[in-house]
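Q: Could you write out the predicted structure for this multi-component system? I'm mainly interested in how the pieces pack against one another.
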Amino acid sequence: MVLNLSKKVFSKITTEIERGIKLYFRNGIWLLSDIISTPFWVIFLFLTIVFYAQYLLKDVNALTSLMWGIFIFILMNSFIWAGNSIVQSVTNGIVDGVILTNTNITIHLLGRSIMSVFDSFISGIIALLTASYIFGSSLLIHNLPLFFASLIIALIFYSLFASVYAALIVSLRSPWIVSNVLNFILPFLSGAIPPQLFPKSVANILLFSPFYYISGQIVSAATGIYLINPTIMLIISIIITVVMVFISNFISKKLIQSMSKEGKASLI
Amino acid sequence: MEEIEARNLTKTFKRKVRVNILKRIERRIYAVKKVSFKVNKGEIFGLLGPNGAGKTTTIKMICTLLVPDEGEAIVHGFSILDKPEKVRENIGVVLAPDKGFYERLSGIENLVYYGRLYGMNKKEAYKRAIELTQIVGLDKDAYRYVEEYSLGMKAKLSIAKSLIHDPPIVILDEPTVGLDPISARRIRNLILELAKSGKTILLTSHNMWEVENLCNRVILINKGEIVSQGTPRQLKEKLNLNYIVEVEVLNSEKVENYETFINDKGNAVIKIETSKPNDTLINLLDELKYKKYEIGEIKVIEPTLEEVFAKVIGDEKGI
Amino acid sequence: MKKEFNQLLAILEVEIKNLLRERGTVGFAIFFPILISLSTYGVGAGILGKAPNIDLWFYQLIGFTILMIAIFMSSSSAWYVRQGLLSRRLEYLFAASINPLIIVAASSITSGLMGIGIFLVVGLIGVLVVYGISNLLNFFLATIILAVSLIPILGINLIVAATTIIGKDPEAISQPLSAIVSTTSGLAYPITILPFILQIIGEVMPYYYAAEYVRAMINGYLNLVNLESFPFLFIYLIGGYFIYRYFEYNFIRKEGNYGA
């Protein structure tokens, strides 16, 4: 019976992923828009961040860290908007349809998350190439296995995070405002601004942010600059992701309960 | 055997009401109040009522999208409160005919998507999707993106979606709203065919003619409460609505003691409003025969459900 | 002319009412430049190990505010056309005896007014923090300069609106414009630190001038020589008008592309 259930869940997951892939490649205008916009955003973010300390434009290590910081910024940005997309799913009546098939909302959001994976991948590569070409950042990855491991952990974590975030904002009148603000706050909490540029006492604040262990680990693996021992960081990131599995499952159930009680999607 | 049994379904919603410029208080407002009915297997059962009467809320409770504050419903032998997953497996639902689809997927792809979420494998879902698009008459349009669909095509696709997992019960909320007459007729025929194939249909509408022609039994809801129920004929009888008896009298422009009008053939037509059409007609024909009048066309016009609706709802509104 | 003016006023009134009910949007537009400029200031302080010059914060505050206005205007033009087509509101308006340009102009003027409102609030905070009340008069004159600078930007919005007719997805259309404007217009940093080609892009777009004129006016060193290239920017308004009319005629009226 357990085997049958997991087969059913697996089938639903593949259905949602397939749907996400189809939709992503059918929105050609978004793809084009990303390809045009990303190099400009990269230049803008680089220069805005170093505005107060323009001497950093000559520091390859700082520029390389910043490049990976922008890479994780793109990754998080994409998943935040994946969470934001639930509002559209609710208005379009898709969430009702999905609930009627006995499918978990987190599984449904996977379809949108897979679009985020593609989005992050394409925009991420453009960002890396732009930063390397314009600013001379290094594209060498210091610890390749750890980099890929942390990337996979981050993708799983942010897919789950998107579903939790979606449940929290779905009842808001202007959820895009929260998404936009979070879009800038989260990278700060994630080590997107290279912590080694700050005094140690300031940099250590990041150790209290769970997002740092997920996103900062990607930057550390790529640059070889660690705030804490990489093994400990990896273990903590896995624990945080497992905790997120439970949180997203709990929140998703709560959301459906609330929808069926009040007739509208709302948790807050 | 009952496929759906609603027992005292009650639902309230929170609404903010302004008391004065500064203060707004939260009140609970009844959307549905103690609604009970039974739907038999293979029956087409209608929920009739004006906008905001509580039809959609009732349907949403039955299909487990809303939890009732009080009451209970048993669907295909399963409680909506204790076994909502089982209920969902046994119902197909159309809530808003134009919603619930991915615009950049084709009709077929949308159906396959939902079929697979219902647990079918890709091959099965695809086969069933093709079968259903032919049944609902989407044919080649099924391969176009939904963003290119008209409302009628979306309504057909919605019905196909509700049938993708071949449920024994189909719940349709205003399935023909906004459709052109040809598309609406096609959907109605489809509903009749579904009932013939043994499926139980629960539908809401405020199209009286549609309900009268489709439904075996009807409940009339207003302000969240049932105001009348029965077969369309029973509803009319309960309200003692008048039939109209019309008898054409040939070669005559007037008939003594009766109110008449002249029809397009230039003959007098006697028109009588009565609650007992059979007795009235027999007596009238006897009298006309006795007076040597030549009788032409005879018509007995039944009151429509629309009149029932107008009387029940209108009385409540003081119209 | 009186009829057209009344039509413009009627649409403006509805659009402004509609906008004022979106309190979240207005609040965000005011909050965002402050949040971002303070964040970058904080990062700067962290990196330098001391508080940077407050003038630099003000430089970015003005830049981010103009960026916000630019994004808001281009995005709302695109959404106006898209939602108007989807809800069939534009169809009704086109069927009425009204010049379509009045409709688009009214929408752009609304977002422009909103932009000036945002600037008044955010800029006033910035001026009071950095200069106290001494530069207040300059600030109010700068607001007028900004209002004039927004006129050529209306032309760009007309191009965005036109592109949305065929591109359909408003955000996908306005996003590249926002990216290009943010990067090349000297809003968050001087354009002199950009590669040459990007400097050229910045200098041919009206946003750069809006930011430069406003900063110069507040600091009291704006003169007519600075303004010599400004009249040329009105080419955008004329160009935007013709491009919009071309798209509207060929893709809406001729192709009947209302809605989908």
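A: Regarding packing and overall arrangement: Chain C touches chain A through 42 residues (CB under 8 Å).
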